[in-house]
Amino acid sequence: MTRSSYKGPYVDPRLLKKIEGKKPIETGVIKTWSRACVISPEMVGFNFGVHNGKTHIEVLVTEDMVGHRLGEFSPTKKFLKHGGKMQKELEIKKKESEIAAAKAAKTTDTKKK
């Protein structure tokens, strides 16, 4: 659900204070825990360290990000991968076939010379 239009977007005042009057090149990473903060045009070019619950993930703000929230660019869950034993076997077979193909290509290259 979006915020009421008469209230306007939520921009953390402490975050605005940190970037006020500074150039994006001079400042380093600005750490923040405010994931709900909406990215405003003044923030473009700055590096923010957005907290994901464990660490701060670096986010370089671009023009395309204006209007989105900082938390959208700092995932809180780490995706490992689907599958178990069967998936692992498939990956091993795929690697073996790639290695065999590379060896075959290498032997054909040496025969041509």
Description:
It is a single chain. By secondary structure, the protein is an alpha+beta fold. The radius of gyration is 23 Å and the shape is elongated. It has helices spanning 13-19, 85-112; strands at 29-32, 47-51, 56-60. The protein is built from 2 helices and 3 strands, in the order αβββα. The termini are far apart. 10% of the residues are buried. Strands 1-2-3 form a 3-stranded mixed beta sheet, covered by helices on one side.
List keywords for this structure.
single chain; 113 residues; alpha+beta; 30s Ribosomal Protein S19, Chain A; 2 domains; 3-stranded mixed beta sheet; 3 strands; 31% helix
Q: What is the strand content?
A: 5-15%
CATH class value of the largest domain? Alpha Beta
**Count the helices. How many?**
2
CATH architect. name of the largest domain: 2-Layer Sandwich
Largest sheet: 3 strands, mixed
User: Any idea how many domains?
Assistant: 2
CATH topology description of the largest domain: 30s Ribosomal Protein S19, Chain A
Shape category: elongated
Find the structural class using helix and strand composition: alpha+beta
Strand order of the largest sheet: 1-2-3
| Total strand segments | 3
Helix content: 25-40%
The helix/strand order is HEEEH
Structural Rg: 23 Å
CATH superfamily of the largest domain: Ribosomal protein S19/S15
The low-confidence runs, each spanning 5 or more residues with pLDDT under 50, are none
Distance between the termini: 66 Å
